[in-house]
Design a protein that fits this description.
There is one protein chain. The protein is α+β, with helices and mostly antiparallel strands. The protein folds into 2 domains: about 35 residues; about 160 residues, Alpha-Beta Plaits, CATH 3.30.70.270. Helix content is about 55%, strand content about 20%. The strands form 2 sheets. The protein has a 6-stranded mixed sheet with strand order 2-3-1-6-7-8, sandwiched between helices. The protein has a two-stranded antiparallel sheet with strand order 4-5. A hairpin with a 2-residue loop joins strand 4 and strand 5. Helix 3 packs antiparallel against helix 4 and helix 4 packs antiparallel against helix 5. The protein is extended and about 80 Å long. The chain starts with a helix and ends with a strand.
Length: about 210
């Protein structure tokens, strides 16, 4: 009988140690998880986004990768200050997250450059135009209405010779910078050539004027 209390005590100590370690591990995981997020927008930073994007690509070979750059962000930041610039970036992150929905993941690569991966669907072309319009909606901040445009390049993995995330990012990046080089006022949405060829659609859609 005397051994039972000792055994019970040993079990309680073991449980306490296990619980303590579990709590420690949970706090550590949350800190690591937080470190992979951009503190301003709450979006995944490069490392965290890449891990999740790779998982989506493995599950959905028809995934689409896009890069979005905010046009006119620097003048807003320079004229109205960093707080105004931060408000624009935070709004862009929130809108991009909303656009991605439950089956995609958005990230911020740094500065005013954002990235996302989503599964393809029959409405993707319209959805990309919707995203461009969403990003150019005014942001209310300290009595100001701040407006920026967006250059967006998108790439469908299924049409790439090497269907990897790296290849898709490069393809989308090239498409995005072609957009930036074609117009000063207003921006256009450019689908990567392989993306447009699939549906025989125009490669560019006019965005903000």
């Amino acid at each position: 009988m005397s051994a039972h209390p000792a055994l019970a005590l040993q079990i309680l100590i073991s449980l306490a140690l296990a619980t303590g370690w579990a709590l420690h591990a949970s706090r550590l995981y949350r800190r690591l998880d937080k470190s992979r997020r951009d503190p301003l927008t709450g979006l995944w930073a490069r490392e965290g986004w890449t891990r999740r994007a790779e998982r989506i690509i493995r599950r959905h070979p028809r995934a689409v990768v896009l890069l979005a750059d905010l046009d006119g962000f620097k003048p807003v930041n320079d004229r109205y200050g960093h707080d105004a610039g931060d408000a624009v970036l935070a709004a862009a992150g929130e809108r991009l997250t909303l656009w991605c929905g439950a089956h995609g993941v958005a990230g911020r690569l740094g500065g005013d450059e954002f990235v996302a991966v989503v599964d393809d669907d029959d409405r993707l072309d319209d959805r990309l135009a919707d995203l461009a319009e969403l990003l150019r909606q005014p942001v209310e901040h300290a009595g100001l209405r701040l407006t920026v445009g967006a250059s967006i390049g998108a790439s469908r993995l299924a049409l790439l010779p090497t269907p990897t995330l790296v290849a898709a990012l490069k393809d989308a990046d090239q498409a995005m910078y072609q957009v930036k080089g074609r117009t000063r006022r207003g921006r256009r949405l450019l689908l990567a050539p392989a993306f447009a060829a699939l549906r025989n659609l125009p490669q560019r859609f006019r965005l903000a004027a």
